[in-house]
Amino acid sequence: MNICMLAMEENAMTAATMTLGKSPFLTFDEFIRHWASECPDKTALSDAERRWSYADLEQRTAKVAAILQAMGLVKGDRIVWVGKNSDLYFTLFYGAARMGVVMVPVGWRLAPAEWAFIINDTGAKAVFTGRGFDEAIDPIRNEISNVAHIISADRAEQMIEGAAPGVFDPAGPDDPVLQLYTSGTTGNPKGAVLSNRNLFALRLNKDNDDIPYLQLSGDDVILVAMPCAHIGGTGLGVMAIAAGLPGHVLDEFTPDGFFDAVENIGITRLFIVPAALQMLINHPRCRQVDYSRLKYILYGAAPIPLELLRQCIEVFGTEFIQVYGMTETTGTIICLPPEDHDPAGNERMRAAGKALPGVELKIADDSGNELPRGTVGELMTRSSNNMVGYWNLPDATRSTMGEDGWIRTGDAAYMDDDGYVFIHDRVKDMIITGGENVYPAQVESAIYGHPDILEVAVIGIPDAQWGEAVKAVCVPKPGHDIDEGSVIAWTRERLAGFKVPKSVDIITALPRNASGKILRKDLRAPYWKGYDRQVN
Predict the structure, then answer these.
(1) What is the DSSP letter of 500?
(2) Dihedral pair phi/psi, residue 323, rounded to 5°
(3) 127 Cβ partners below 8 Å, 6+ apart?
(4) Count of Cβ atoms closer than 10 Å to residue 191 Cβ
């Protein structure tokens, strides 16, 4: 499908008649009704096969609301999506959000047992499966027996086609609409609950600040390429809706999918992880594509290697913005602007960036007291982006977010005199591999039980392609030998592939402090020798 010229004509037409993103709206219902009125024929959503206008989106999401009402769902109930990115996912999400039903997208790369935990944790009344996932969910149907409705993509489309638009009480700014699961340090993931205000309010601050790279114009087209179970995926769809722009959806990131979107859709802005940028640069098609419409590439989850930045600037000819955020902060709260990206390298390229308008940052001690500039402490943040809390986990919520609204990021950092934040290390032990978060405790829990293993510690080590790779350090049971392949295969049966160790070391005993805590820094030290920080 080639809709590039159509998108460009639509955008040129509407750019002259409206100011994007300046509205005071704070809910999906307000935005969708507004854009359906202002630019009904303009593209709202597209994928490789279909295109929906804002008028279509208003009708389809109102039908979704009617379908959910018919199932007995009310404001505050949960629905789950198990599948890849899809225009259907966003239609269901926006329709549910209009009436205050909370969407919970589940990572399709997770193991079925992980799906079951999340589905049961949500108390969801309905589960929607993306194309290709009808049979994938079969092994856990008995484990999610409390779910009243399991609906395939084809069935959902039929229901939407046959429904009449519903009449509903719209969700308010502080009503939850999205629940994203983030890996937990204690083994199980936690559901971060996000409201309409979390998703939209900070955008008002951005629009009121005259910073070019934060502005969206009528000719912009947003590419949704990262997984919808991550804020970097769903958040780009929200960006498009907030500005009345087309959001083009890739079911998953592939180099050819990206190149096709550039050539046929005319995308102008996207979010991507550095590991994916490396895939693009190494692809034989990369230097044959016309990138003249591409304005900005946002990247995050890891800093960009200097040599990769040089190659990207040469090939794409666009501007780069590094973004830093968490699920708990509804995505980006810090960015490193284009002017700080220098192909020759500079000190600021080691920084995560500086606060977005409307975001407060501080470097704090263990008690939350602000530390002087240049001093390493824990990075804390406060803004309208801070989550409502963790689903059904009041203690975890209190330990992460104080009554004064400050969230602990878990990252050790320092701030320079100009407000730039430099990530020094992790307070927590999270591993970031290819943009995916992996917590050692969950991997260790999966490995425990292996018949040859007495103890195990999981660490992240530098990896040229993925930023970090997962490594298991194992102690054998007396009289047993540990086979690396056996450990990897054992873990693969229990966890998503990206959480499985890429390598296994065998040692006689794990290093511990006087209180018995495993000294992960000691385990990591040999692999990070020559690096000035243990974050790649």
Answers:
(1) S
(2) -120, 145
(3) 79, 80, 81, 82, 119, 137, 144, 147, 149, 150, 151
(4) 24
Distance (Å) of CA 110 to CA 75, 189, 274, 422, 470: 28, 11, 21, 31, 16
Give the helix, strand, coil percentages of the chain, each rounded to 5: 35, 25, 40
Domain extents for the chain?
431-524
301: closest CA among 332, 329, 280, 278? 332
Alpha helices in 71-165 (DSSP H): 87-99, 112-122, 153-162
Which stretches within 412-454 are classed as H helix? 440-447
pLDDT digits (tens, 9 = 90+) for 227-241: 999 999 999 999 999
Handedness of CA 387, 393, 396, 398 (dihedral sign): positive
Tens of pLDDT, residue by residue over 258-309, are 999 999 999 999 999 887 898 899 899 999 999 999 999 999 876 677 788 8
Where residue 176 falls among pLDDT bands split at 50, 70, 90?
very high
- The string of pLDDT tens digits covering residues 16-38 is 333 344 458 999 999 999 999 99
Q: Using alpha carbons only, how large is the chain's radius of gyration in Å?
A: 23
Cα(341)–Cα(348) distance, integer angstroms: 8
Find tokens 């591999």 and name the residue: 433
Residues in the chain: 536
- Is-contact 87 50, C-beta < 8 A? yes
Measured distance CA(11)–CA(41) in Å, rounded: 11
| DSSP characters over 222-280 | EEE-S-TTSHHHHHHHHHHHHHT--EEE-SS--HHHHHHIIIII---EEEE-HHHHHHH
For residue 404, give the nearest of 368, 434, 437 by alpha carbon. Answer: 368
The answer to whether the CB of 70 falls within 8 A of the CB of 95 is no
Residue range 431-524 forms a domain whose CATH class is: alpha beta
Q: 512 pairs with which residues across the strands?
A: 518
In 3D space, the residue among 91, 98, 87, 89 whose CA is nearest the CA of residue 34 turns out to be 98
- Residue 167's SS3 state is coil
DSSP-derived secondary structure for 5-53: HHHHHHHHHHHTT--TT-S---SHHHHHHHHHHH-TTSEEEE-SS-EEE
